[in-house]
Amino acid sequence: MSKWEEKQVRPVLPLYLAAGTWPVASLVFPPYKLANLILVAVCSVVVYGAARCFCPMRVVRKLVPYATGSEDVDAMLNGIASNLDALHTLNDAIPDAQLSQAMNRMEKAGRSIVAVVENAPDKAPQIDRFARYYLPEVVKLMSAYVNLEKNGVKGENAAQIIAELRGNAETTATAFENQLDALYSAEALDISTDIEVLDSILKSQNLAK
Q1: What pLDDT does residue 209 have?
Q2: Which residues, at least 6 apart from 169, have a Cβ–Cβ distance to it below 8 Å?
Q3: By C-alpha distance, which of 137, 135, 163, 136 is closest to 149?
Q4: Which of 77, 125, 141, 173 satisfies CB 3.0 to 4.6 Å to 102 for a cystine?
């Protein structure tokens, strides 16, 4: 199983430009004199510095394997990561700033949960319901919201679904954060009460069986 890892990479173009400055500048300042050699070096440094300003660091994502020592835990983490990627994509399509902020909190807490369990696989049982039910259902809910917005669905039922999603997004985000907090405590925190409202929304709107 695998995960995405982000790494900042410095672009090589400034180095190429700085190296290319030497032969060009040498035509103007023949480097057989020490003063000219210094001028050529200074030109190269200036070009490198200017190029760095216009060529910022790049963020490169690569797929790396989970290695917790347990295939079941690796599979669980892979499933969580996949759902968090889907949540991130859905968030990009949501214009509502308040809802988007709550989804950012959900994703941040989810990524941290993965990191904690990856380093301490024995904590995996504490996030079983989060991984198998709560996170996938949130993705399903947000997908329904995006489809309603995209298709311009109007009417009382659609308005009610949208209002409930917006109103309970903060509660769901808090529940995710509570799940994360529970991993740092000796006793697992039961988040079922915090997220019970999510269950009621799913069932009342026929979005879950």
Answers
A1: 43
A2: 98, 99, 102, 103
A3: 163
A4: 173
d(CA 64, CA 48): 33
Location of structure tokens 């963020």: 59
What are the tokens at 198?
A: 């999510």
User: Tell me: the pLDDT tens digits for 145-202?
Assistant: 888 777 766 667 667 777 777 778 888 899 899 889 888 774 444 555 455 556 665 5
Could you tell me the CA-to-CA distances from 20 to 16, 41, 122, 140, 147 in Å, in that order? 6, 11, 55, 54, 52
What is the bridge-based pairing of β-strands 2-9 and 58-65? antiparallel
Distances (CA, A) of 145 to 43, 82, 87, 100, 158: 56, 19, 12, 12, 9
pLDDT for position 208: 43
Instruction: Tell the residue number behind the tokens 């050699």, with chain if given.
Output: 37
Both tokens of 197, joined, read 């409202």
- Distant-in-sequence, close-in-space partners of 154: CB < 8 Å, separation ≥ 6: none
CA 179 to chain centre: 18
Comparing C-alpha atoms, which of 138, 158, 152 is closest to residue 202? 138
In 3D, which of 176, 66, 185 has the Cα closest to residue 129? 176
